[in-house]
Amino acid sequence: MTTVSSVLPRSSVPGRWLETPWIYTVWCIVAAFGTYACMYGFRKPFTAGTYLETETGWNMKAWLVTAQVLGYALSKFIGIKVIAEMPRSRRALVLLGLIGAAELALLFFALTPSPYNTAWLFCNGLSLGLVFGLVLGFVEGRRMTELFVAGLCASFILADGFTKSVGAALLAGGVPERWMPFTAGLVFLGPLVVFVWMLRQIPPPSDSDIAARSARAPMTGTERLAMVRRHGVRLFGIIFAYLLITVLRSVRADFAPEIWAGLGLGKQPAIFTQSELWVTLGVVVANGAVVLIPNNRRAFFTSLGLSAGGLALALFALVGIRTGIVSPFVFMVLLGVGMYVPYVAVHTTVFERLIALTRERGNIGFLMYIADSVGYVGYAVLMVTRSAFPVKESFLGFFLDLATILVVGAFVAVVLSWVLYARRAPQATE
Question: Which of 253, 215, 216, 242 is nearest to 47 (CA)?
Answer without folding.
Answer: 253
